[in-house]
Specification:
Elements: H1 8-14, E1 18-23, E2 31-36, E3 42-48, E4 50-53, E5 60-63, H2 67-76, H3 85-103, H4 105-116
Antiparallel strand pairs: 1-2, 2-3, 4-5
């Protein structure tokens, strides 16, 4: 990375990533996303929904995936398993390790900083 990206969208572009989005069968408003590095390595997000929230009312509405939204999923490490909280915790640890391996340490740390600051 020549200059330090200041948004997740800039980070996405600086890493040369591409995003492929597919709808998920049997899940309304859910998306499957594949992030691909220039060397062909991929990171799969099996099912994710994206929401915007009105800061004044707390109302939520579904939005479509964008490169910066998909990249922010890697920062979260939040995996939901409605039936098993322990499985969710273990999956979250695995997701963080996979995201770090996919992006590299420096980019992963920067992603988390940008995501925490809300810099889409």
């Amino acid at each position: 990375m020549a200059s330090t990206p200041t948004t997740t969208a800039e980070l996405f572009r600086s890493l040369g990533l591409t995003l492929t989005v597919r709808s998920v069968e049997d899940e309304d408003e859910a998306w499957a996303c594949t992030l691909t590095r220039p060397d062909g390595e991929t990171y799969e997000i099996e099912s994710v929904s994206f929401f915007d929230v009105d800061p004044d009312t707390g109302d939520e509405w579904i939005v479509e995936p964008t490169p910066s939204r998909a990249l922010s999923v890697l920062a979260a490490g939040d995996i939901e398993d409605e039936d098993d909280a322990t499985a969710s915790d273990e999956a979250g640890v695995d997701a963080v390790a996979a995201a770090r391996a996919f992006l590299g340490d420096e980019a992963y740390v920067l992603l988390n900083e940008l995501d925490a600051a809300g810099q889409e």
